[in-house]
Every structure is written in structure tokens, then in C-alpha cells.
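Step 1: inspect the first sequence and its C-alpha cells.
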Amino acid sequence: MVLPVYVYGMSVLRRVALEIPEDYDGLDRLIADLFETMRFSDGIGLAAPQVGKSLRLFVVDTSPISEDKEEPELKDFKKVFINPYILDEWDDPWSFEEGCLSLPKIREEVSRPSKVRIEYYDEDWNLIEEEYDGIRARVIQHEYDHLEGKLFVDRINPIKRKLLTARLNAISKGKADCDYKIIFPKKK
């Protein structure tokens, strides 16, 4: 089922997400819904807090951008990350324009280390530790930030962030136009 995406101003996006117990009821359905919502919304990653669930879970599927980028490994990079923890980030930081389904129509250059080592459980509850680089590392770092209560705008130059204040405030007040279902903060 396609779920609505929670946007800037929703408190769930600013909370550190909780670990998921292995017997979590409905986990398979939530994972399927995350993938379906991500595809419907033209995303390449989606974290549980973005659909209102403060849980340490995100999914990625970079196949939609595999033809645009010079990284053939993006074609088959479709994964589920349950209770992930980034163990290390290293190598020279590089800037890349990021967007986010929770920040409709906002894109900015974000600098991140180019390599990451992450520990997580897959959907069969196998504990995995892997290293990624390039765009795969960036997608993981971006989605992982959601589990830590951070958004990519927290990582941009403070002057650029200040320039986005009016657009961010508009989103939090229910003024955003996009092609997918969204949930706005309740108006006071």
C-alpha cells in the first residue's frame, strides 16, 4: 500500500528512531509498503520515520538512477536495512545534490564522506556488516540520518539553510505541491 510521506515540520522526523524487535508484528507489510511508497513517489530510499513510524528501518533501490550514473552497481542495489548502525565514515568528503521526499521540491549540495561501513539486519534477521562507497554510501547516509532525527538541510551551509527558511516554513504550514501523498503538521 502506498503510504503518505510525512514532511518537514512533523515531529517524527526529528526523533531518534527506536530499534525494531525481531517479533515486530507487521514488519513484512511495512517493508513492502516502504518499497511501494518509495517507487510511487519516485524515490531511491525511504526511512520508516518518513511514513510516521519512529523505527530503525529504511529501504533503498537505486535502479531508477542506474542508467544516469556511471556506477553499474546501482542497477541491483535494492536492500532492506533493519536496526542499522553506521560504524565508520571515511575518505574525502564530496558534494552532491540531494533531495528528499519529506522536503518536496528542495534540492541542495550536501558534503558527505565517500565511504561508509554499516551494520544491520536484513529482512531474514541475518546480521550483516558491509562497506559501500559513492552514491550507494550517500543514499545509506541520507536514509540513516532520518533514523537519527536529521534531514539533509541540517548538513548544508548555514547561509543556504537560512535562504531556505521561507520554503521550509511553507512546507510545515501545508504549502507544498508534489505528485505523491503527504502528511502536513497540524495547523495551530
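Step 2: inspect the second sequence and its C-alpha cells, then contrast the two.
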Amino acid sequence: MIAVQTSALSPLLNKLSGGDRRSIGQANQVAGLVLQRPALFPQLIEGLSNSDPLIRMRAADAAEKVTLRRPGLLKPFKAKLLRLLDEATQQELRWHLAQMVPRLALSAKDCVRATTALMHHLEDKSSIVKTSAMQALVDLASSHNELIPGTKTLLTTLTETGTAAMRARGRKLLRQLERSHK
């Protein structure tokens, strides 16, 4: 991953610096600012590649919160988000990317790329990354019907062999898929 140095931080990203990984800092306030001024959104995306892991983590958190309400803001950054989904190693960045990528309009090729990356996320040491990847796979299957059979098979396996969190989430996601695709 290409990291941007923190020396020339924008005022927006500067609000995301400092403290430690146990805190989201001002991510909620930054998300609120960006929702009011969407022209600031590219700065959050820039923060996903910052050399400071705290800024990366909080920029991802704020971007995820913003795009929950305004998913269209992600469109110009599809290539970067898919690349980061492939390459990111920081767990907080991985789980927020898993939440955001299904909000993109993906071609069949992009969908295969995202699905492959998310399958690798299922091997992460973090339970949050694993369960976020499971949710993302279901979200992708919801808009790409050809993924439904494989996703159901995977979830069935994970409800039998995964961690406790994966088993519980897998059961819930299987019910969600069943309800939405009868």
C-alpha cells in the first residue's frame, strides 16, 4: 500500500490524528462535516492511504459512516477502494472497506475481484474482519444473483466450522439470504 506522509495533513484529516487505536477520535464529527460538505469526501479517501494508522482507521470509519447515507460519493474512487480491499493489512481499514465496497456499482469482473479479496479476509485473525467480510459477501450476492449459491454454501460451512462469532453471524446471514431470495 502506498502511504501518504502526515506532514501536510488537511485540516479535516488533522482532526483524525492523535490518541490511540482504542478511540475513534473525532471520526463522528468528521463524518458529520463531510455529510454537510460532500466536497470534502475526497480528503477522507486520501486518508485511507495515510502513513499514520490512526488516520487511516478513522478516515475509513468516517467514510463508511458517510457512505451509509451517501453511497454515490464512492463512485469516483472505485478503483482505489478495490485496490485497497486487495492490499490493506490493517484490520480496521479491512473491515470498513468490506462495508463500503458492496455499496459500489461493480462490474462482473470487479465483483469477482472483490469476492476474492473478501474470501481472503475470512482468514484474518480479527473476528470483526471475518464477520464484516461475511456480511459483504452477502451484500454482494444480494445485487449479483449469480453469487447466491456459492455464498449460501460458504455460509453453511462457516456456521459449522468458523469461530463462534462467524457461526452466529453465518446463521443470521443465511436467514437474510433465504428471505430476500425466495
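Step 3: confirm your contrast with the notes below.
Residues 68 and 100 are 8 Å apart (CA to CA). Residues 1-7 have pLDDT under 50 and may be disordered.
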